[in-house]
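ligand=histidyl-adenosine monophosphate
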Amino acid sequence: MRSSCKGSPLEAIQVIRGMRDLLPEQTAWWRRMERELLGVLERFGYQELRTPLLEPTALFKRSIGEATDIVEKEMYTFQDRDGGWVTLRPEGTASAVRAYLENSTWKKEPVSRWYYLGPMFRHERPQKGRYRMFSQVGAELLGAGEPAADVELVDLAVECVRAVGLSDVTLELNSLGCPACRPAYRERLVSYLGAQRAGLCELCQRRMEVNPLRVLDCKVEGCQRVAEEAPRILDFLGPECLAHLEAVRAGLEALGHAYRLNHRMVRGLDYYTRTTFELVSGGLGSQSAVVGGGRYDGLVAQLGGPEIPAVGFAAGLDRILLRLMELRERPAGPPVLFVASHGEAGSRAALPLVQRLRRAGHKVVTDVRAGSLKAQLKRADKEGARLVLVLGEDELRAGEVSVKDMAAPEGAPDKQVRCALGDLERVVGEKLGGV
Ligand code: HAM
């Protein structure tokens, strides 16, 4: 709570910049979105993986890459009380691969399909759609290098955003080649960028040396002009990478997924090989990528395991939700039954009734403050109750309860009925069945 008293020693404590509370208004949206996404993942045969939020810092340095924005300046890294360096995970792929190796999963099954869900942490500059704590749903397929795996992951990502109701997304596709063909491209790109140096922003002039591919997706206008004319990686792919890309494209076409080849989509993490893709949503401004992913055939070996190819993606839930709140109605919860009672005897009689109804699976709300029946009925209205169950003096005497149907028109014969207490579940069931 904000302190109202200036100079008070009780300084108001506020949420950390770039982080947010999700109040019940938002969590209702959030939970529906999660339910729909997880439904798709399960239907594709993916199983849930849960890993710690905190990992050894070295894991991210070795996987995401030392020269990336994430590792250079965005990680929440600190020394824990034992003196070891730890980092709040900025993404989920590195942890998934660590768990895959640590549990020798590759010895137990040829192909693993995992998904995960949860918060990630990056100390970025906050803006609409970009937070320092944000949530991802990610999917990883480990153990298959075939283009069919890439196609499955892209299809899965598209189905995920479709299932939640995001209609305005476009699929962008690229290939970043492999360690055999990328060096020649990199060399050619660096020499092109060297000639254009004056047109690049300060950061890109530095990127040119350490991570030249990142110049291609810089948002600064001058850099974009330079990037547009830059040599294209697709012209440098070796025959195997090219065949892989063609097979992925054929698969996507067979599924009817339209896509745009975007030679400037290089992704912000170093582990990618061959296919990379993003789903971009209109109406989100500059933070428009709702899904990002691709193949990372070298990562398992890079982290000390055997040569095992893999491909995956992660969807940014905060961004998806921003868009959904503009596009979809707020999710309706289950119908509310409100139990109102008169006096002490009434509230005593209401207790087991409420318990019974809840055990029967209904959502039941009461006003726990001892108030007049009138005040309770007002409360019922505020709660958007579908049925109001009244235990007034009359009802108590008769061992009955009045059931008021808030959805029925005023004056309708079934607007309010009375029934025996023991018959309540049946009456409630009938009323709700007729919704
Ligand atoms: P990423 O592109 O860094 O990829 O993140 C994936 C998605 O997370 C983005 O498209 C975006 O929707 C969301 N996201 C990223 N940063 C933020 C932020 N600061 N605020 C809000 N949303 C954000 C990865 O993380 C890879 N691990 C994906 C992957 C899985 N590749 C292979 N497997």
